[in-house]
């Protein structure tokens, strides 16, 4: 057992249910990628959520690593789900969205819970997994100076040393403030590509600069290993712009996002409900184009994370 994670492992161990495949992969020093489950419970409609959950696991496998989808059921934290659990999660009509603060409450009530970036990071770290793939992270909401609405994902990134492979944040959020927050809280923020422009999920650029960009995964591996050697407790974002061929629909989707944001304000949608409301409204307005694009970037990120996790375990410090 890795002593570095022992403290957190011990506190979580009563609740952690790690699948035999994930346990074996970790024990053998193989690459493992955590996958979140809010995207399954709240991000995509059934049955697309189920097929996407399976295709993300497949992408991780075909890039040489093992997938570990994380979710809460029956008072336990599950790391690595079999087909039956994936189906239960995807078809649940009562699943709750679980950020870090909600883990305990979801366990005591034995609810079905889809984990956000924040809680998935926390759980992945407790299980000894250091690479995690998702679509987009939460961030600073527009109007946060009035509402104080800032995703707990950013807090978790500031204190949990897990690398989150994502496509940045949606423009429904305040991207410059989100990037600023990450810098203030010492989160490594790297763009995977030529240009140092933080991606905005459906589009490749946001106009905000990240810390640096690189086309080499080995440089990301070095960064993670060096941060670990330095004992730095912060998370890392590896921001992967949506692949060119899917970015074409970006402008249309962007207009739909602007409309959905206006509607959310008019209908006084607040707090944890904002992101699911906007995502589903944008999908309606674009007649499904946003969902296709969303799935494409999720798959791309899962493949990159799979390669990164493999390089991370095979490369010497
Ligand atoms: N961004 C997306 N799709 C999502 C989310 C974010 O484009 O499904 C989900 C992620 O699970 C993320 C969470 O961690 O929403 C953030 O929610 P909140 O802002 O309530 O913290």
Return the CATH architecture of the largest domain.
Answer: 3-Layer(aba) Sandwich
Number of domains: 2
The biggest sheet amounts to: 11 strands, mixed
In the CATH hierarchy, the third-tier topology of the largest domain is known as Indigoidine synthase fold
Distance between the termini: 19 Å
Report the sheet-strand fraction.
5-15%
Shape: globular
Q: What proportion of the residues is helical, as a percent range?
A: 40-55%
CATH superfamily of the largest domain: Indigoidine synthase domain
Mean pLDDT reading: 93
Organism: Caenorhabditis remanei (Caenorhabditis vulgaris)
Pfam families: Indigoidine_A
GO molecular function: hydrolase activity, acting on glycosyl bonds; metal ion binding; pseudouridylate synthase activity
Keywords: Glycosidase, Hydrolase, Lyase, Manganese, Metal-binding
What do you see in this structure?
It is a single chain. With about 325 residues, the chain is α/β, with parallel strands linked by helices. The protein folds into 2 domains: about 10-130, Indigoidine synthase domain (Indigoidine synthase fold); about 135-315, 3-Layer(aba) Sandwich (Indigoidine synthase fold), CATH 3.40.1790. The protein is about 50% helix and about 15% strand. The protein has helices at about 5-10, 20-25, 40-45, 50-60, 85-90, 105-110, 115-125, 145, 150-155, 175-185, 215-230, 245, 250-265, 275-285, 290-315; strands at about 15-20, 30-35, 65-75, 75-80, 95-100, 115, 130-135, 165, 190, 210-215, 235-240. Strands 1, 2, 3, 4, 5, 6, 7, 8, 9, 10 and 11 form an 11-stranded mixed β-sheet that branches. Strand 3 and strand 4 form a beta hairpin. The longest helix is centred in the C-terminal third of the chain and has 26 residues, at about 290-315. Residues about 1-5 have low confidence and may be disordered. It binds pseudouridine-5'-monophosphate. Pseudouridine-5'-monophosphate (PSU) binds near residues 38, 116, 151, 152 and 272. Pseudouridine-5'-monophosphate (PSU) binds near residues 136, 138 and 201.
């Amino acid at each position: 057992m890795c002593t570095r994670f022992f403290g957190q492992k011990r506190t979580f161990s009563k609740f952690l249910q790690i699948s035999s495949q994930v346990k074996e992969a970790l024990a053998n020093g193989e690459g493992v990628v955590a996958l979140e489950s809010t995207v399954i419970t709240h991000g995509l409609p059934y049955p697309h959520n189920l097929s996407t959950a399976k295709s993300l696991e497949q992408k991780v496998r075909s890039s040489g690593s093992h997938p570990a989808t994380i979710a809460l059921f029956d008072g336990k934290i599950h790391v690595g789900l079999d087909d039956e659990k994936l189906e239960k999660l995807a078809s649940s009509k009562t699943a709750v969205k679980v950020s870090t603060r909600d883990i305990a409450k979801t366990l005591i009530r034995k609810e079905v819970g889809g984990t956000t970036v924040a809680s998935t990071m926390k759980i992945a770290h407790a299980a000894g997994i250091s690479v995690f793939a998702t679509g987009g992270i939460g961030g600073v909401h527009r109007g946060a100076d009035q509402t104080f609405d800032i995703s707990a994902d950013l807090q978790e990134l500031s204190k949990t040393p897990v690398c989150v492979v994502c496509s940045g944040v949606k423009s429904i959020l305040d991207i410059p403030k989100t990037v600023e927050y990450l810098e203030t809280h010492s989160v490594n923020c790297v763009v995977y590509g030529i240009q140092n422009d933080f991606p905005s999920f459906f589009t490749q650029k946001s106009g905000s600069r990240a810390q640096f960009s690189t086309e080499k995964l080995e440089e990301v591996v070095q960064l993670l290993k060096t941060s670990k050697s330095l004992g730095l407790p912060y998370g890392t974002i590896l921001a992967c712009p949506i692949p060119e061929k899917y970015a074409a629909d970006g402008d249309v989707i962007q207009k739909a996002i602007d409309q959905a944001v206006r509607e959310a304000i008019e209908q006084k949608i607040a707090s944890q409900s904002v992101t699911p409301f906007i995502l589903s409204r944008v999908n309606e307005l674009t007649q499904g184009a946003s969902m296709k694009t969303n799935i494409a970037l999720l798959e791309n990120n899962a493949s990159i994370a799979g390669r990164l996790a493999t390089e991370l375990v095979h490369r010497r410090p």
